[in-house]
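Running co-folding for (2S)-2-hydroxybutanedioic acid.
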Amino acid sequence: MFEYLVPRQPDAIIALMQQCKADTNPDKIDLGVGVYKDDAGGTTILRAVKAAEQQLWNTETTKSYVGIRGNDDFRHSMLDLILGGDAGKISTDLMDRIASAQAAGGSGALRLGAELIKSAAPDATVWVSTPTWANHIPLISSAGLKMGKYPYYNRETLGVDFEDMVAHLSAKAKAGDVVLVHGCCHNPSGADLSPAQWDQLADFFVEKDLLPYVDLAYFGLGRGMSEDSYGLRKLVEICPEVMIAASCSKNFALYKERVGLIAVVCQDTDTAVIARSQLGSIQRKIISMPPDHGAKLVADILGDQKLRAMWVDELTEMRERMRDLRKQLSEALNVQGGETIAAAVKDQNGMFSTLPLSVDQARKLRSDFSIYMTDSGRINIAGANNRNIPRLAEAILSVL
Ligand code: LMR
């Protein structure tokens, strides 16, 4: 039967990873896949993760399955972390209204959520920003859901077209539709909503009966933990129902361990009980049982004062390094003709910015300078360092 299959192209990010790996130029600059790199270009294991692994090695006695919705400590400590704000803890009332499940990475969480939407409201459309992460549409539409797009990033001003976003959703989305928003560090643009815009959006979702689905893949890597969860917390405060797909790939650097959480804030506790049973049964159908190792490490780190403090320091270090790289690149680009890009690169959040380059310009940077970014002009700022920034800025300005 397999002779009838046709070859499939990898998506833009995976293809770029392969191309960059094959480039033998020792001075290549990899601004492709969203993986944090330190000053030496490495993606090392966090010290808190190593310490938790060591502890686990000494104490773990079984590799038997965790429950179908995963480790309770992981789910609860993650919910406290992302929804608890400065207090770091949510109320029992809110916890009781949440159905959650440990997932195979943020992508696994997005997919579990998409399947839940499909079960609850098969005719709902899921709206995503233009642009959005390359895998959002394939991941969510393969659950059988309809997808729509709303305007978001303006490639001229390099900011968010908030009024267009709201006007478009107001005109096109129907009550009961789902709107996927990036909780912070928008991928691929780095352009986030302001607190005032989040406030307005929360009221708009309630007024139009739209369900927010928050992708929280870069929590802690934008402006700070409290700042990065402002929008999510506002939605949970104002909207009766909210879905969240959180990832620990980047902020715990646990990429290949595949650690994610799907959480559904329901209107009441009875609905949450039903949603929990649904999430469990969907998980069972797709992967049966979630992987445990990475989630157990996160639970142990968040549950131990010393390990947690160590992790917070490392997260802060990653975030501050990226802010510093943004500042350096911005200064190097701040010449005649580069002012808008310079300002955007400095102010945007997280790993990514999308530069206003054409496909040809992005490809020229690849072929002539061994500088790897997606065809859309997305750069991962963590791939830069203070040694290559002058060359990077010069190359970008030369193709503009
Ligand atoms: C990215 O956007 O580069 C990351 O989220 C990695 C991926 O899987 O695409």
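Result summary
The domain at 10-45+317-399 is CATH 3.90.1150.10 (Aspartate Aminotransferase, domain 1).
The radius of gyration is 21 Å.
Job closed.
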